[in-house]
């Protein structure tokens, strides 16, 4: 059986997912929708799909599932609409910037029995999966501390800042999900500090560009996250997990993994320039996992609850920065 999918949103992340679909077995892109017809036409033409409206896709008999890559403020409404018509749903994070709206949306998903998978692609990165496998196999003993470094090569434009929900809901949310994934326990306390060291315009818009977060579980396990909107050396993505018997880490990746040694010293190629190339394998793997979940009838992971919990940690981080104290996720709902 080939799963036939429609792509909602033909922008940057939509293009990434279209490519992932094209490289995945048992799935076919049949329709593309976007508010900008030119973008939809270009992407549909490139992958042999048709241009359609969201309403057309809702009614389409040849569409089994949708991949939602539209602006964040449309996600919850689209999830609810496609849940009600019985189509499986893959949605980029977050479901919404409001915890209450996310909970309302998830209640519709539960009531309709819809399949919903959230786009936390880093869980599917082969290097990070190898870290998780080392933990699950017991090689490093009990997890005690997790360190996550996630730094973008440059700050986004102000227009993006105003619609993204801010660094914690937009950027750190991936790291919150990864911390939960690796810790194996829910976070009990969030302590965050944040400032503006990169672009003063970001501060004027009420957001931050540099942040450090410490997460603690009820048993005392810790995860520390380092975020920056500026890494002059490339897209910085590293993980280390320390356990009772040892440690496991995933280093930065490069398009070409070589090292040149001369009399002048050692040289290595630069890092990937951003997520589109760094996480190519992860995007393909998560689409493959979505396809398998739909075909098997098993609940996909990560699901809607994972999205809710990551957003709760983001809200707790914001409150922690504001009140300069540790915050329990329960405090923010």
Automatic annotation (TrEMBL):
So where does this one cross the membrane? Answer: none
Query: From the UniProt record, which GO molecular function terms apply?
Result: nucleotide binding; oxidoreductase activity
NCBIfam families in the cross-refs: myo_inos_iolG (TIGR04380)
Pfam families assigned: GFO_IDH_MocA, GFO_IDH_MocA_C3
What positions does the domain Gfo/Idh/MocA-like oxidoreductase N-terminal occupy? 3-120
**Which InterPro entries does UniProt cross-reference here?**
Gfo/Idh/MocA-like_OxRdtase_N, GFO_IDH_MocA-like_dom, Myo_inos_IolG, NAD(P)-bd_dom_sf
Q: Which UniProt keywords apply?
A: Oxidoreductase
Name this polypeptide is given:
Inositol 2-dehydrogenase
- What PANTHER family does the record point to? BINDING ROSSMANN FOLD OXIDOREDUCTASE, PUTATIVE (AFU_ORTHOLOGUE AFUA_2G10240)-RELATED (PTHR42840:SF3), NAD(P)-BINDING ROSSMANN-FOLD SUPERFAMILY PROTEIN-RELATED (PTHR42840)
Domain annotation GFO/IDH/MocA-like oxidoreductase: ranges: 128-248
Give the family from UniProt.
Answer: Belongs to the Gfo/Idh/MocA family.
Tagged with keyword Oxidoreductase: yes
Q: What is the lineage of its organism?
A: Bacteria, Pseudomonadati, Pseudomonadota, Alphaproteobacteria, Hyphomicrobiales
